[in-house]
UniProtKB/TrEMBL annotation, chains A, B, C, D:
<dbReference type="InterPro" id="IPR050109">
    <property type="entry name" value="HTH-type_TetR-like_transc_reg"/>
</dbReference>
<dbReference type="InterPro" id="IPR036271">
    <property type="entry name" value="Tet_transcr_reg_TetR-rel_C_sf"/>
</dbReference>
<protein>
    <submittedName>
        <fullName>TetR/AcrR family transcriptional regulator</fullName>
    </submittedName>
</protein>
<feature type="DNA-binding region" description="H-T-H motif">
    <location>
        <begin position="30"/>
        <end position="49"/>
    </location>
</feature>
<feature type="domain" description="HTH tetR-type">
    <location>
        <begin position="7"/>
        <end position="67"/>
    </location>
</feature>
<dbReference type="InterPro" id="IPR009057">
    <property type="entry name" value="Homeodomain-like_sf"/>
</dbReference>
<dbReference type="Pfam" id="PF00440">
    <property type="entry name" value="TetR_N"/>
</dbReference>
<dbReference type="InterPro" id="IPR001647">
    <property type="entry name" value="HTH_TetR"/>
</dbReference>
<keyword id="KW-0238">DNA-binding</keyword>
DNA sequence: GATGAATGAGTCTTCATTCAT
DNA sequence: CATGAATGAAGACTCATTCAT
């Protein structure tokens, strides 16, 4: 219980919080539950995080960082815009599937400012990433001559709705592939002469 | 002190709740705030709604009913599937714009069963409405040969994401028209011979 | 709703209170329930009784008066002490059977002084009535040479316990006659030569 | 602020509750009063007892257990029925004298089921204990040929009334010995030829 | 570093009482 | 005389946070 136990305890707390926040939301989660999940005392949690907010914010930050890293990874060697879009979407959905806690990103019960800002900045960044891809596609003539900003918003909202729906425990979800396909080709029949 | 009519007080409470729930979420909202917003005493709220749940559920139900009615109206005289889709989406988004409170439909912190059920049933119904439209479009050959279920999910999630994004106070949102256009035609350039 | 309605409304309120107090106890009873039972508005109750206490006290007083009257009646023409005792006990038990509300006489949740005093005085009076009977029986040599005070207490407590038990809804109760018989003759076998 | 040991705090809370319940009854007692009596915060009470009911039930149970144990002890080496009866009654009355809180056993304001059941079962058990004693006395010919059930009820109610009277703070009570004597011999003079 | 007992402000809810009509 | 909408003080219970050990 000494050596590098400090870091391991911190991690245990963090991962317990994740579960509890995911299951109960920010307001609904309580410190006793988190402490129990981490097998430490309540007071101990406060040795590592000075309040509930900080715990929450730390999680938020680490999710954002990881999703960011994965996305960068996924896009690294792709040049084709359609392919890049597919990679972006798939990465996001797969990540969300693994991290139900990410709901919180969508969650409404953040009364505090810092979390909101962080989050909004993150989302803005992701949207502009999509926008870049679309712009490139339009430039190369692969995508139709749409407004890249609007297209990015549509794609972004679509992903977000997907994640929210998934998080709410509602069964019906499209497969990433089918989704990408539809976004690329649209609903209307291509005129095959 | 009590010249106000029963119905008017009820309405004032309802509309105050709407604001408070929208701003703080279910768990975060508190009866004192709601009462203050309605300019009545806390006890008075309980004269009209027997508990917080009932207040919430009443709001939820009325939103769902109104959105339902509006959607039915909008689709009444439309036969063309693409047009119907556009009408469905536009109605939903316009409604959400007017009723920020609808976030709650997306909300995470409903611990109680009845609200969740009601909500899920409502969402299911709406999704199946989209599915019907898509199916018809595929049948008539206007839409491409996609899986109507999957397409409905995409469209549905897309709308939902849109609403969530809007609710979170984030600025960037696509215009319904541009969105519909993209969903219909897809991102990829149509091959112009 | 005019003529002599005043008195009739008062009576309706009183009799509704009786039921409600009997069923819920003093603290547990609430004015809305009483008003409903009397088919008047809550405010109307306050037109007749200035507060919950007064309502309660009024009932208490009327029970005591009635029991008092009945007891006096029952004892009027009896000279024989054993017979008088039997009459006293039987009257009390019969009355209690008809007036479940009388529990309240036994009830614990009277936080206010006036009721308590009234009640204690009433009980003291009844006990001294028994004592007189016993004293006379001892004087005439019909009763054994016991301390009349102690005997009165025993008899009094016995009746009281009977009533409490009855009120608590517990099934098993002795019949007044068997009880009187036992009190008179004792448990021990009489030596029959 | 927290040097007090867990068990000692629990005991302090329990004994404060005893006083408060005894003085105000179940409904009338409130957690603030109990906490104050135990010199802890309200929240602290809930660290030890998860609700008001549990606090009450804990007390109820411990009284019943102790009175049970004492009664068993007292009767252990007695074979003579008259003596056994005297021991039973005396034990009960002495116990009640030491534990004014026992009123609660008589209390009317238990809205919750478990407490009532527990209590009624306890009382039934005690009554049947008396019945056994009486039956034995009748069988051996020491007691007169009465119905043991009825006699048990009388004795039981008598004790109960005694306790209630005592609890209500009313001064006058028979001494256990005089009471037993009367129950055994009856009021009527034994015919000494 | 870790514990867990303790706090106190805050939450939902109830209810005796008042008062304009 | 009667209504019933409204009040506000209180009650049971929860929980983030602190602190002696």
């Amino acid at each position: 219980m000494n050596e590098r136990s400090r870091e391991s305890t911190r991690q245990r707390i963090l991962s317990a919080s994740q579960k509890v926040f995911a299951e109960h939301g920010y307001t609904g989660a309580n410190m006793r539950l988190i402490a129990q999940g981490a097998a430490v005392s309540v007071g101990c949690v406060y040795l590592y995080f000075k309040c509930k907010d900080e715990l929450y914010l730390t999680l938020l930050e680490s999710w954002m960082n990881e999703l960011d890293a994965r996305t960068t990874d996924a896009l690294e060697n792709i040049v084709e815009p359609a392919e890049a879009l597919a990679a972006f979407i798939t990465t996001g959905i797969v990540y969300a599937r693994e991290h139900k806690e990410m709901v919180l990103l969508q969650g409404r019960d953040l009364g505090f400012a810092r979390g909101l800002e962080m989050k909004q900045q993150f989302l803005r960044k992701r949207r502009s990433l999509i926008e870049d891809i679309v712009r490139k596609g339009v430039a190369t003539g692969i995508f139709c001559d749409c407004d890249p900003g609007e297209a990015a918003k549509l794609i972004f909202c679509s992903m977000r709705g997907f994640i929210v729906t998934m998080m709410m425990g509602e069964e019906a979800l499209y497969s990433p592939e089918a989704g990408v396909e539809l976004l690329l080709n649209g609903l209307l029949r291509r005129d095959t002469p």
